């Protein structure tokens, strides 16, 4: 089998299913085939080969790719062609992967269903009436539909883990700082992390290996050693101490979801792990703190889209102020505007202490909840989402119901720790469910070990 065969397979599958799934926004076929040919020439020679030699990959459209349209699924960046690569994209090239194309998402990664894309909805491959989750819904759907074996997503409040759970694939949000954010279009800089979405845990560990490490271009990337994640997949969880927060199995969590987690815990128990119930007492404030902080950061980050520097510019403006206003009014979708307004309000003088500062304090308490639990336990286990994938249109008119979907993933971002979603069975109506495994700072190895033993 050649790399060209793999690339063929990927585009063939896209041709077959993507008019239904609609995961891709832009394909990069010509370049992909050319790169494949170059890699094929290395086969059978002793030229060095990258860690993921010849593997097709889809990249979420908020990760910038040189000379390849990068839209963040926003009209405001509809024709934006970056002049440089994100660090992760350079790392992928070094690993010899092949970028198949750019993938749909909620506009600027704000959303939980892909319904906020400025261009198209992505549909859940398991049931086309259901959402794939979001905001990396396209990345999860593309892997679930067999269009690509690997994809990259980004996770600010659950955007890798929730769609992985809805689509029955494996998605990991690394520790904050593990993966460079250089070239990831910022939504909430203190929470955003790029991470891998794959069909199984081993592939996931390989992809994280390829994109991890200190980057001088990102001052928040961490100078910590990158262990060999694949070597951590020993299958051994004997004596492992699992904490199960009671808040993660209580009110608002669907019965089937609860049951699937209890079943997964039995499997882990049979492998020699032990589990106990614990409490993350401040998790009930996580959603409110997250929406305040993430919207505040977003309002600052998205100020750069002014019609002058990037992408779309409104054609009918008399004055500079009108140009800003019209460009932003025409270019941003409703959800993005909602967050910018909320964030601008929360940061305005007179309200700053009451909202932003208070939310920061809550964040500290949430972080401490995790530290307390991790003083005694190796991992935290619970569901990824309170329900399986919901129906398209079901939550779109009610932002609050939509936000509640992320209640179990958001605390992990606020604490900065790593978390994975692995498939753990199906609901009665045949939709995949996800098990969330959360680890200590920079301890993706243990998270992977548990996920792999369970899988
Ligand atoms: N759904 C959450 C939001 O809308 C999380 C998004 C994300 O992780 N990018 O903010």
UniProtKB/TrEMBL annotation:
Domain Amidase: 5-447
Record-level GO cellular component terms: glutamyl-tRNA(Gln) amidotransferase complex
Active site, renumbered: 60 (charge relay system), 135 (charge relay system), 159 (acyl-ester intermediate)
The keyword 4Fe-4S is annotated on this UniProt entry: no
Reaction catalyzed: L-glutamyl-tRNA(Gln) + L-glutamine + ATP + H2O = L-glutaminyl-tRNA(Gln) + L-glutamate + ADP + phosphate + H(+)
Statement: the UniProt record of this protein carries the keyword Nucleotide-binding: yes
Domain of life: Bacteria
PANTHER family listed in its UniProt record: GLUTAMYL-TRNA(GLN) AMIDOTRANSFERASE SUBUNIT A, TRANSAMIDASE
HAMAP family: GatA
Quaternary data: Heterotrimer of A, B and C subunits.
Protein name per its UniProtKB record: Glutamyl-tRNA(Gln) amidotransferase subunit A
